[in-house]
Fold this sequence. Notes:
Largest sheet: 7 strands, parallel
InterPro entries: AddA, DNA_helicase_UvrD-like_C, DNA_helicase_UvrD/REP, P-loop_NTPase, PDDEXK-like_dom_sf, PDDEXK_AddAB-type, Restrct_endonuc-II-like, UvrD-like_ATP-bd
Keywords: ATP-binding, Coiled coil, DNA damage, DNA repair, DNA-binding, Exonuclease, Helicase, Hydrolase, Isomerase, Nuclease, Nucleotide-binding
CATH class of the largest domain: Alpha Beta
GO cellular component, one term: cytosol
Number of strands: 32
Protein name: DNA 3'-5' helicase
Mean pLDDT: 88
GO molecular function, one term: DNA binding
Oligomer: single chain
Amino acid sequence: MSTQWTPEQQDAISARGGPLLVSAAAGSGKTAVLVERMAGLILNEDAPIDADRLLVVTFTKAAASEMRDRIDRRLSQELRSTPESTFLQRQKILLSRAHIGTVDSFCSELVREHFSQLGVPADFRIADPGEMEVLRAQTFSHVLDSFYEANDADFLELLDCFSAGRDDRPLVHMVQVLYDFVRSHPFPQRWLREKAAMYLADAPDETPWGRAVRIYAEEALHYCAQTTKQTLNLLQEDATLSEKCGSVFVQDLAALVEVQQALPQADWNTACELLSTISFGRMASVRGYKEDSLKIAADANRKEVKAAVQQLQKLFGYSAQECAEDFARLAPMVEKLFAIVEKFGRELDAAKAEKKLADFGDLEHWALHLLVAETPEGWRRTQTAVETAQRYDEILIDEYQDTNELQDLLFRAVSREEKNLFMVGDVKQSIYGFRQAEAGLFLARRNASVEYDRKNPQYPACITLGKNFRSRAGVTETINFLFRQLMSEGAGGLDYTDRDALYCGAQYPDSNTPDAELDILERQTEEGDTEMAELECRRIAESVLDFLQNGSVFDKGRERGGRFSDVCILLRSANQYAPLYARLLGALGIPAWADPGGGFFGTLEVRTILSFLRTIDNPLQDIPLLAVLVSPVYGFTPDELANLRIADRKHPLYIAVQKAAQSGNDRCKEFLNDLRDYRTQAAAMPANRFIDFLLQNSGYQDLVLAMDNGETRLANLHLLLEYARKYEAAGWGGLSGFIRFVDRLQEEGGDLGAAASGRETADVVRIMSIHRSKGLEFPVVILAGCGRRFHRDVGDVRLHPKLGLGVKLRDETTGCRYTTLPREAAALEQERDEMSEELRVLYVALTRAKEKLLMLCSVSNAEAKLASLAAKLEPEERLPAFLVRRASSTADWLMLCALRHPDAGRLRQVACAEHLRVLPCSEKCTFQIIRSKASAETAPEETEQPQAAAVLPDEALLAQLKRETGFIYPYAQLGRVRAKTAASDVAAAPFEKKYAAQSRPAFLGKGGLTSAERGTALHSYMQYADYAKAASDPAAELSRLQQEAFLTKEQAAAVNLDAVQKFFASPLATRILKSPHVLREYRFTIEVPAAHLDAALPPEMAREPIVVQGAVDCAFEENGALVLLDYKTDRDADESKLLERYGAQLQLYREALTQCTGLPVKECCLYAFAAGRTICAAL
């Protein structure tokens, strides 16, 4: 059945002739449209485009893979209709060569194609994040040392501005942030030059900072005046309040309006004087109105107005002359900071080049260098760009709202004057500002484009896809109701109008209940994340259980009952709170899976093993040692550890453990024995092999499987193994180095990705971050944690793409630090951008819901909060951008909007705001206030109760329980014997620890072979050699084996030919050469009684069959019987020791030969190459 496209979708599919931007709302089918457009380009009858002449760029590998699969299925569908079409067959082949991938993959291909032109090594690799963190830290340490040695005054003042006399970590952090920040710009050095030049201004009004502060002041004064006017109108509702308090608000309003009108024409100094004149008189107290909602709202409004004015007075607290002096002081420091950034970049590039490493930023800049040349006016295309552009007939960019300036320039450079660009995205879902994504690029293109007219197309054009095929009408209308009020050009980047609204296009059966719900949960305290989580989890549990019992979902065209997996809980900060919610929900009987996100080093199992490794590396560290002792591996109790410390308070804990062991403490003895063994192994193994050894020998990997989410915990331990393997592969070595690597990474605030849980796909409630949920959809979405305050940066240093850098300065007289105009202006714009992004994050969260949307807002005093918010609402539909940006949490936004919903009469009643203008909404929504229960109830008065009759146990049930719980497995002793084992393991088991450290030391290079590897080489020679030829010329036979690849060059060099020659000169070799039948490397599998492997087994278990596998080095027939020969390369030539070690193995070989050949074994011999003699064992 063919897809029925909407007119707008069809336009996006078929429009040709110029650059096209598709603004695709959530759930509007943008991926399907993109795929169909690609298919249309390929299958166009008039001018088809080969599949490999399309450049399709998206931002995740998963999205690229899905897109390739979709277009492949689309071509396959066409091919089924016309299987004889060679054209379609060719396109299917070309599709495999088409570039459908991420920006990074496109850049990587381009760079590897032109590596010589760039001067980069052809075999460069992308560094792991952890590896990159350490390299950056090492490089910056070297850079900083060079500036310290220069003792430059500007550098020292810069250091003072950042560090406040403590340490240089803030400067280190700032340089690295600034380095990453400028790399998102096409020309980082130009950006640094332009921002440094801003500090050469003589007056604040000449600077972008002054203009930004003035714009903010005008907005703030307008809002303050409107809020004061609104409060005056509210006071009219109560004659007493109007009489007592009205005059104060009238005075406030007059002062605000006067300054508001005069400010635009005033110069900087006059503006400072005007704002300083605003003062607020004392408001009279009104008896009996302490708990009155109207009085509370009026007080809250005035408090907010005062705070806003005080902020303005702070912003304009410096004269133009003082600002100019600050600029003059800041200029050399900023120059120095930018010089540090540039030097750091150069040295980091050199360090990466030395190791043939690159990061994704390098790929983008190298690609840009190939395509673009910087000019004084801007940029121009290179010849490489012109040639590359000829490869692609159309460039299709998905998720365009998430691009940055550098990526956008890449697309423009590789296009044909931008005429073949097709961009699709949704600026309302641009939520990656922390990765330097620039939503303004999308908005600028949209504003520069005309609405597409299919009858008279003009370009650049924009097509809006507003029909939502994901959500029920109640969900889409609730989202529209919220964002028509919240999102504006000043808060969110665009005015949310009919053009951007969602229009329900999904078909669902009618529902008896509203599709959206807002619950206000009243908590006891203002702060306390745990209390909020507990309240919300109780409400979530109630909601989920009700959904399972009474709800249903529409799935694949039919209605079915609800499942846990239909529900997704979205959190703004999942890394911090998701595990808490999962644990609380689990306690309430709701199975939940929490998105692990990052936090690898924070997981219990990784922390424990890292403590093990740190203790093994240096046992004198008390904290790691304590962590090991209390871990499940050793299980020391707090009392036992306290006794250890009491016995020796002065020395490290390790010394106390040693003393306890010497005093007869068996547990301490066991620990010290294990530690001694581990330290021995660690000195002889690479980090990854040792960690594997530790996990197996300590039993910790078995222990974690018994914990909650055991499989995920085990996967994290395996990840640690993989990280250690990569560390070793990068050229580093040893456990100590790996521990230093991890410590340095943690010191720099870095982390590694944790393992994903397999439970995510099980029937569980999922808990994830809003960012991770982008692109996904769920039948039921619960948005939790809305009452948590927004994170606002209060640091001394501020950074903004347009306003550059702002820092505090130290007063030369008092030594106190004070803020500066650049810092305050950058902070204002940064906050504006952050609040706009928070709005877009909220939009993404709400648009994930298909059928049900539940929003949870936890507040400490519902009545006061609602009354305070209601007092800020004006008659206009759209909320003032200033008010939206000053909200303290998502809950403020949701409740502000909810107060004007037709179904929120109860909220308006509680807020004493029945007068509020009610805005239209065509769909129902549920609003309720859920109050917390009292923490304790008064206990009833004690009364004498009649003694209850004794309840006798059910004897039959009791007997059954005793019988079942007392069951002892009758074959438990057999657990000491493996059901399947190797003959060589039987011989090696008693000596395993003794000889384990003979493996390759961590410091040994690849050029040498260990003793075990040399022994293997000699065994291989004896296995593959022609004994007759080897007896006459062992060297020639060795050369043949190497040429025919039976031995490597290294193995051949390790074969001791003197020992070989001595063997073939022995009487034993003469007997072998005369034998009519010689077996070499004879492999076998037999069954033997368990008693052969464990003589201590009781008689009833001794005959249990055990499978033994192995390979006999050599056996030869002599006089109707076999002679068994096993080659040994041990250095120890002592006859008795060799027989002790290998006697059991020889007996197993003897039995195997007898069972498999039917011939008796008359002799069992060892040939010791080190001693050059034959050793025979007694039969």
